[in-house]
Amino acid sequence: MRKWWLGSVEEREADEDELRRLAEVNARAAVPIEVVDGVAVPEPPAEGSPPIRERFLKEQHHRQYGRPWGMGRYLFDFVVDAGLRPEHRLLDFGCGALRLGIFAIPYLEAGNYFGVDSHLVSLEAAATYEIPVHRLEEKRPRLLWNDEFALTHFGTTFDYVVDISSSSRVKEQPDRLRRVFASFAEVLKPGGTLLTVPKPKLSTDELAGLGLELVRGEVIQQLPLFEGHEDSFRPYNVWNELRRAGP
């Protein structure tokens, strides 16, 4: 399945190979990676579940984001400061390998964390390495592999949606970005909060037409650990907070 910001013919052809791999991944996963039309969870091989891939033991997935893995702590702190509480349901859009999730899942009540991503390898790192390492299975996180913004798959609404640079990379058809934010609005509870980095590429009027009101814009979060390394890592995040209009 292609990344949101790609979509070449070659990558679409590669999707078929990844689909065939999903059952193998889920055979070793601590929680299943879901797809919209079902979950591929095979019986483990006779000799037991296959080992996880060595690349995850080497934590190569921690270095694929362009900014340090420790960013997850800052993301989590901001979301909590914005009002996230353990009883809330959180949708992590572009959850990747759980850079935010490893902090959010233990904080939230069981069953309240939902992650979606279009990159199977990142979800594999989450399900086969990060979740068992941090002993998060009992919190029953749910992971969805999808690149068509099928957020209603989870069959619930959310108090918070967090979008860290994923929607800003959406390309292809002109209406594709609008579909992302329409999907956010569809699954947010009335009064629910959408937190994005960076600012949405839709206008305020376009967002309002979807039922999303900009509450706070251009909120600067300083990242003390990154200070002094500006040539490599931006030492701040710029957040925007939107609210889903009431019924």
Strand content: 15-25%
C-alpha-based Rg, rounded: 18 Å
Secondary-structure class:
alpha/beta
Unreliable stretches: 4-13
Number of helices: 7
Proportion of helical residues: 25-40%
Strand order of the largest sheet: 1-4-3-2-5-6-8-7
- Please give the number of β-strands: 8
Distance between the termini: 35 Å
The gross shape turns out to be globular
SSE sequence, one letter per element: HEHHEHEHEEHEHEE
3D architecture notes:
By secondary structure, the chain is α/β, with parallel strands linked by helices. 30% of the residues lie in helices and 21% in strands. It has an eight-stranded mixed β-sheet with strand order 1-4-3-2-5-6-8-7, sandwiched between helices. It has one domain: Vaccinia Virus protein VP39 (Rossmann fold, 3-Layer(aba) Sandwich), CATH 3.40.50.150.
State the gist of this model:
The chain is of the alpha/beta class.
Task: Give the tags.
single chain; alpha/beta; Rossmann fold; eight-stranded mixed sheet; globular
